[in-house]
Design brief:
single chain; elongated; Nucleotidyltransferase, domain 5; 333 residues; six-stranded mixed β-sheet; 3 domains; 6 strands; alpha/beta
């Protein structure tokens, strides 16, 4: 029997009450008279089994009214372009429990993301590089001080790399942003995968239109990973390009829920701020040391950067590493 609407549920409840009012109810006759499934009526009257719509699982921490208030609060913040982070939602839930005189009950650290499949939890972030920048090295010399690297023609020019990983180990193709206005053929002397996205920006940082372009590509690459009724969760930092109307509107239309990290806490909470980006920096600077020492700095260019990125990018992004990063941040089970 269809009982998906409140009207139908109410009608069934009335029939159940009618049957219970009889000393010896004839359930089959009542079933035929009111058009209610006999087995359903028997379970409700004889076994006193309540409908699923009225049953609250015992492992739920918040009650129905508290969850409704939480949902309204989240929607209000999201409509104001201030989507709350999982940590903020967790704090709100615990504060609600404390106000209701149940401070001994608290929600878990990953409570806000419970029930979300790891393949639908993503983290998007950018990190910056300076072409030709190396690491401080120890050397043997009769002179005091540090060894200086030989500068290349583009030493110090910034490049931004945007990455996205999922809690199940999946990884998206990178977005590489060069400083400039136009692409140059000389940047692509070394082969890179066709799926990589390269772009230019005046200062080499991600800008609003590139963030929207990335969101559109993210939607295309992850759409087939979603099953019926599921929602993609994208975790981002507070960068201005992640909070524009166009970026959030593109995500909303695609059914992607945005969560932000609290300011000044991303290095503790964001998965990508862990080993992947740290390994990026270490390898890149070491390569520049080798270039300056043996190649005189002449290879420090956009072309060599893409080649280096292609060579070392797979190392910090193994599926197992990505899974561990989300678990370490209490963002996945």
């Amino acid at each position: 029997m269809p009982d998906s609407t409140e009207t139908e549920v109410s009608r069934v409840n009335e029939v159940v009450q009618f049957a219970r009012s009889k000393k010896t109810p004839n359930l089959r006759a009542t079933s035929r008279k009111f058009g209610v499934n006999y087995n359903l009526l028997w379970r409700r009257v004889k076994r006193n089994i309540r409908p699923k719509t009225e049953v609250k699982p015992s492992n739920y921490t918040l009650n129905v009214y508290q969850e409704k208030a939480l949902g309204y609060w989240i929607k209000t913040l999201d409509a104001s372009f201030l989507p709350p982070t999982p940590a903020i939602i967790e704090h709100w839930a615990n504060a609600t429990l404390a106000r209701s005189k149940t401070p001994d009950r608290t929600v878990g650290k990953d409570w806000a993301l419970e029930g979300v499949n790891p393949r639908n939890i993503y983290n998007f972030d950018e990190t910056g590089f300076q072409i030709g920048q190396g690491r401080t090295r120890r050397v043997f010399s009769s002179q005091s001080g540090k060894a200086s690297d030989l500068p290349g023609v583009e030493y110090g020019e910034r490049v931004t790399v945007a990455e996205c990983i999922a809690a199940d180990g999946w990884r998206m193709q990178p977005l590489v942003i060069f400083k400039g206005q136009h692409h140059m053929e000389s940047w692509y002397n070394h082969p890179i995968p066709d799926e990589w996205i390269t772009a230019t920006a005046e200062k080499g940082y991600i800008i609003d239109k590139l963030a929207v372009r990335w969101m559109e590509e993210f939607d295309r690459e992850t759409r087939d990973r979603v099953k019926n009724g599921e929602q993609r969760i994208l975790l981002v930092d507070g960068c201005g390009s992640h909070l524009t109307f166009e970026f959030l509107d593109t995500a909303t239309k695609a059914g992607i829920k945005i969560f932000g990290f609290p300011p000044n806490r991303t290095n503790y909470l964001q998965p990508l701020d862990g080993k992947p980006f740290q390994a990026y920096k270490a390898y890149f600077k070491t390569q520049n040391n080798l270039i300056s020492q043996w190649g005189g700095g002449l290879l420090a260019s956009k072309s060599s950067f893409l080649n280096d990125l292609y060579q070392f990018r797979d190392s910090p992004y193994t599926p197992n590493v990505s899974k561990c990063l989300f678990r370490a941040r209490n963002l996945s089970s």
